Please model this.
Amino acid sequence: MEFIRAGVNVLLVDPFPPTPRDPHSLHKLIWDEIEEAPFETPGDEPLLSASYRVGDDAVGLPPVAFLETFRVGGSVPDMPAWLDPDSYVSVPLERAYQVAWDVCPADYRYLVEHGRFPDE
Model:
């Protein structure tokens, strides 16, 4: 939240389902600092990506959150990374994840998939 207040645009990928500590997602915890509003992720897509564009009080431009939900096993949606109030770059999150996964050493892939190294 302090980044947004300081004028830094933020791109958040929250790949974990809500917990008792953040029952309505990390986005709600962040956004409630700006403006309290009801928010819940859909039950079938509890994971979330959020792109926050900072505001500009001088011209009356409020901060904005762009949200996309997704599910475990689903594709992570492309998201905007804001450069300024009018310009952004689309970040291909799923494609970047797949490229990184493809070059990940086999024993680390095994660790992610099984919760332990192959020789444990």
Q: What stands out?
A: The helical segments are 2-5, 26-31, 93-103, 106-114. The mean pLDDT is 91. Residues 19 and 25 are 8 Å apart (CA to CA). The two ends are 41 Å apart (CA to CA).
